[in-house]
Amino acid sequence: MTNQQGWIKLHRQILEWEWYSDNNCFRLFLHLILKANHKEKRFKGIELKVGSIVTSRDLLARETGLSSQQIRTALSKLISTNEITSVTSSQGTIIQIVSYEKYQVSTNEITNEQQTSNQQSTTNKNDKNNKEILFNDFWKLYDKQVDRKKCLDKFLKLKDEEIKLIFENLPHYIRSTPDKQFRKNPATWINNKCWNDAEYSKPQTITYTPNIVHE
After folding, report:
1. Do 190 and 159 touch, CB atoms closer than 8 A?
2. Which phi and psi angles does 99 have, rounded to 5°?
3. pTM of the model
4. What is 151-192 written as a DSSP string?
5. Cα-Cα-Cα-Cα dihedral sign, residues 148, 150, 156, 158
6. Are 1 and 38 in contact (CB under 8 A)?
7. Which of 60, 57, 98, 62 is nearest to 80 (CA)?
8. Regarding predicted confidence, which is higher, 190 or 179?
9. In which element (H, E) is residue 126 found?
């Protein structure tokens, strides 16, 4: 009686596991992890712990495609390094994965991952919506309106500080180029980061301090 649903977690450290390069051992061990019970239960009068499985060598051979001898050898190796324990009962062989908790995904982990993913998705969606609103303001201000979609794609990739500079400097660019035919297309203006051009940037405020001569 085994768990056929749910997930297991497998860390990349398993690449350094001593039996990783042993194809039979690795195949059998992974199979046992996938088949093991993820919670305690009873089976034909036997109390099965978390991480255990009731099986037999012949059944494991059929399930994995390995021979009975290969199963016997792989089980011996896994037992020798305390990866599993094996106890024979009237109902079959009870195999216990010693450190099963390392491979089990808890409900809390799934919930946390889902919440994190949902929060990130919501944040990204809100950020995009806010930028689209700002783009509409930009589009109204930039009155040489050409290729809106291309321009929007470039605008959405801008950083917040770049958008701030756009709204600070765009009015000065428009006043500096009263004839629309000499203005760059809006997508080009964004792509070239023209808000940084000294010629069209927001004028600097110069404070005049008169020289005072003291007699």
Report:
1. no
2. -110, 50
3. 0.48
4. HHHHHHTS-HHHHHHHHHHHHHHHHH--SGGGSPPHHHHHHT
5. negative
6. no
7. 98
8. 190
9. helix 107-141
Closest Cα to residue 70, out of 22, 36, 33? 22
Residue 161 domain boundaries: 123-196
Query: What pLDDT does 21 receive?
Result: 94
Residues 98 and 36 in one domain: yes
**pLDDT at position 117:** 60
Confidence check: pLDDT of 152 > 80:
yes
Amino acid identity for residue 175 in this structure: R
169 part of a folded domain: yes
Q: Is residue 66 part of a domain?
A: yes
Using CA atoms, how far apart are residues 171 and 213, in angstroms rounded to an integer?
41
Q: In the predicted model, is pLDDT for residue 113 greater than 50?
A: yes
- Token pair 């783009």 in the structure block, residue: 135
